[in-house]
């Protein structure tokens, strides 16, 4: 319960009296110039730790360590890499409860979700561990004069830049395939959530990962992040974050011809037709926007509901949203915790008045929750139109925008009339309609009559402003590896 969680947390926080350092070549090191920044709890704004604030020289040291470690890691047999990655997964499982507590405290995400997210981090390692032995597999394509062999080789040291939403799980999702492919890594975690990233690399090295294979530099995006994207020894950048940061990284990486993989923002529609199983649609619509504080790239932040059922659906929705339990993130009964940072909570709250001025109605929530911490009430807007800011911009909080439609064509044109294209959710019991709509919906991932259920072998990624490239299955290896062709004269 909450008291037990708080007691364990205060034990864990003891070690953060010391600053969180970078990990370069297996060593814990401060920033070269001794600079630090602070990370605070979004729940009560207390200081959690000071953290190394890295600059160009620190990133350079990390990139050089990754370059030095690359040949041995590349040449290690896949079976041995598999064993090491499974050992990391085992170590994550052993520390999952502590990881979840620290992540909840550092980010404000409710413990009920973070406990699962930590275990999912272990799953990510296991999934790619099992694929490591086959990562280099290719084909023979004989011609009359040549025995043509295709194979894959790891691209080299890579940079991984991650955001603050479910940072532990997301970091494992990018780092595990890079390591399985034979790449070495420099990880730059988000400055709003530095705690579990430091724990993750520590766990990996304790589990036996050789020094320098995985380096971690903390710091700001504009300094440490930028230096990583510009570094000539870093061959590729896997980035998860905002669309505008993706654009900046593409420009920064241009001079050194970086390969990039972007998982960016979303403004994902959930389309509910009047023939759907409305009880299930209601549950899923609520779960997909109000879980994880709505700080989730795949959240269903736009509800497009058919006008024939809209009155009833919105009334039931408002009643349910009003009952969502907002509270301390370490309380297992909490459904929505504080948002990551004051700046972010203020941004989310800024939409409330603006939307009303544009003519939307607040059917639930709409204000700050409590006096301490960055809590925002779960909010439901109704009577919105698709051209409003709340229908076009990624709010990234517990805020759902409800828009009515009358025909399938209208639903589709509103669903697609947005800059983003990450996920879509379609609720209908008409199979041919489901096929028509999914075919025309502009999104990288679509679920029909389901919330977002991730199956790791399937491709994950978005279209339009939501990203470039796919993760999952073999797609991750395509990014972290180079195809190589060799023709032997016969
Ligand atoms: P952000 O873009 O502000 O920051 C992400 C990371 O990029 C941080 O580590 C930051 O320090 C770094 N960064 C910032 N500027 C940089 C620069 N110029 N060069 C290099 N690095 C730089 O994003 P955020 O606010 O931390 O995260 C929220 C965003 O992430 C949302 O838009 C969300 O939708 C998106 N996201 C997408 C997915 C997905 O899979 N599509 C998953 C999770 C989050």
Automatic annotation (TrEMBL):
Residues 35-486 form the Aldehyde dehydrogenase domain. One of its GO terms (biological process) is 4-hydroxyphenylacetate catabolic process. The keyword Oxidoreductase applies. Its EC number is 1.2.1.8. One of its GO terms (molecular function) is betaine-aldehyde dehydrogenase (NAD+) activity. It is an enzyme of class 1 (oxidoreductase). PROSITE patterns: ALDEHYDE_DEHYDR_GLU. It comes from the Bacteria. InterPro entries: Ald_DH/histidinol_DH (IPR016161), Ald_DH_C (IPR016163), Ald_DH_CS_GLU (IPR029510), Ald_DH_N (IPR016162), Aldehyde_DH_dom (IPR015590), DH_HpaE (IPR011985). Keywords: NAD, Oxidoreductase. The active site is at 263. Belongs to the aldehyde dehydrogenase family. NCBIfam families: HpaE (TIGR02299). This is Betaine-aldehyde dehydrogenase. It comes from Pseudaestuariivita atlantica. The lineage of its organism: Bacteria, Pseudomonadati, Pseudomonadota, Alphaproteobacteria, Rhodobacterales.
């Amino acid at each position: 319960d909450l008291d037990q969680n708080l007691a364990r947390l205060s034990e864990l926080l003891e070690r953060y009296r010391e600053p969180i350092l970078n990990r370069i070549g297996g060593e814990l090191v401060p920033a070269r110039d001794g600079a630090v920044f602070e990370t605070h709890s979004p729940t009560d704004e207390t200081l959690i730790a000071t953290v190394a604030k890295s600059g160009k020289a620190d990133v350079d040291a990390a990139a050089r360590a990754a370059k030095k470690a690359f040949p041995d890691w590349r040449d290690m047999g896949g079976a041995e890499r598999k064993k090491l990655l499974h050992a990391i997964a085992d170590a994550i499982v052993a520390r999952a409860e502590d990881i979840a507590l620290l992540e909840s405290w550092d980010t404000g995400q409710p413990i009920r979700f973070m406990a699962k997210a930590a275990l999912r981090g272990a799953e990510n390692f296991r999934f790619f561990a099992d694929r490591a032995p086959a990562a280099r597999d290719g084909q023979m394509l004989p011609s009359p004069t040549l025995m043509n062999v295709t194979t894959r080789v790891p691209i080299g040291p890579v940079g991984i830049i991650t955001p603050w939403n479910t940072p532990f799980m997301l970091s494992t999702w990018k780092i595990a395939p890079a390591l399985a492919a034979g790449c070495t890594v420099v990880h730059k975690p988000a400055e709003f959530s530095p705690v579990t990233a430091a724990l993750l690399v520590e766990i990996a090295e304790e589990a036996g990962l050789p020094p320098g294979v995985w380096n971690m530099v903390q710091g700001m995006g504009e300094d440490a992040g930028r230096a990583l994207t510009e570094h000539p020894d870093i061959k590729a950048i896997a980035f998860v974050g905002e669309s505008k940061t993706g654009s900046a990284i593409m420009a920064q990486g241009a001079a050194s011809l970086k390969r990039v993989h972007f998982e960016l923002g979303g403004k994902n529609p959930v389309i509910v037709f009047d023939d759907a199983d409305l009880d299930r649609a209601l549950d899923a619509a609520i779960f997909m926007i109000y879980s994880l504080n709505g700080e989730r790239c795949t959240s269903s932040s736009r509800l497009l509901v058919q006008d024939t059922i809209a009155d009833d659906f919105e009334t039931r929705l408002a009643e349910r949203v009003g009952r969502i339990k907002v509270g301390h993130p370490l309380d297992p009964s909490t459904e929505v915790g504080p948002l990551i940072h004051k700046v972010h909570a203020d941004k989310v709250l800024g939409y409330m008045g603006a939307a009303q001025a544009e003519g939307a109605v607040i059917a639930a929530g709409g204000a700050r929750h409590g006096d301490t911490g960055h809590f925002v009430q779960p909010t439901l807007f109704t009577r919105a139109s698709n051209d409003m800011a709340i229908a076009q911009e990624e709010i990234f909080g517990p805020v759902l925008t409800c828009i009515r439609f009358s025909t399938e064509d209208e639903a589709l044109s509103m669903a697609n009339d947005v800059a983003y294209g990450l996920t879509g959710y379609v609720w209908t019991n008409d199979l041919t309609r489901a096929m028509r709509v999914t075919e025309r919906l502009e999104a990288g991932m679509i679920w029909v009559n389901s919330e977002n259920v991730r199956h790791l072998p399937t491709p994950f990624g978005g279209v339009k402003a939501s990203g470039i490239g796919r993760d999952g299955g073999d797609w991750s290896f395509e990014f972290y590896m180079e195809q190589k062709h060799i023709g032997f004269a016969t």
